[in-house]
Amino acid sequence: MTSPQPVWLIGPISAPTLTWGERRKGRPHVCRTCGIELLTGKESGFCCGPNGSRYCDVPPLSPLLPGIEAIMTHPQISTLSRILNLIFSFASLETMHAFPEFSGPPGFFAIQGRVYHCIHLTHHNSAI
């Protein structure tokens, strides 16, 4: 008696070779309209629409504040991005009820009710 063939076969997974602004024929892979570096596999127009048709739909950003500029140009921004994301996520956490008083060790907190990402000015211990 032979064993049935498995439904799924497990094979090796290739490592992705995604890069920003990969050089193609000696030129960096960028959008023809705005010049931003594109990720491998994205075609020109991905960001600005076909032939730049969406380029003017969004106004340009104002200059970054000096504090934000310092963060964005930090050499470890990529490795620290998860920590920064957590900091900003928790800074905006809010609940439908006030945060309860909690006497646990530092780094622990308790919440009650639904959790929102907004600021509720009437809570005396809000994330403000």
How would you characterize the overall build of this protein?
The chain is an alpha+beta fold and 128 residues long. Among the domains are: 43 residues, no CATH class; 31 residues. 17% of the residues lie in helices and 8% in strands. The protein is built from 2 helices and 4 strands, in the order ββααββ. A two-stranded antiparallel ribbon has the order 1-2. It has a two-stranded antiparallel sheet with strand order 3-4. Strand 1 and strand 2 form a beta hairpin. The longest helix has 15 residues. The chain is flat, with a radius of gyration of 24 Å. The model has no long low-confidence stretch (mean pLDDT 75).
Task: Tally the helices.
Answer: 2
Q: Per DSSP, what share of the residues sits in E-state strands of 2 or more residues?
A: 5-15%
Shape: flat
Q: CA-to-CA gap between the ends?
A: 70 Å
- Share of helical residues: 10-25%
Query: What does the largest sheet look like?
Result: 2 strands, antiparallel
SS-derived structural category: alpha+beta
Give the SSE order as H and E letters. Answer: EEHHEE
- Determine Rg (CA atoms, Å): 24 Å
Got a strand count?
4
| Unreliable stretches covering 5 or more consecutive residues | none
Overall pLDDT, averaged? Answer: 75
What strand order characterises the main sheet? 1-2
Name some characteristics of this structure.
single chain; two-stranded antiparallel sheet; two-stranded antiparallel ribbon; 2 helices; 4 strands
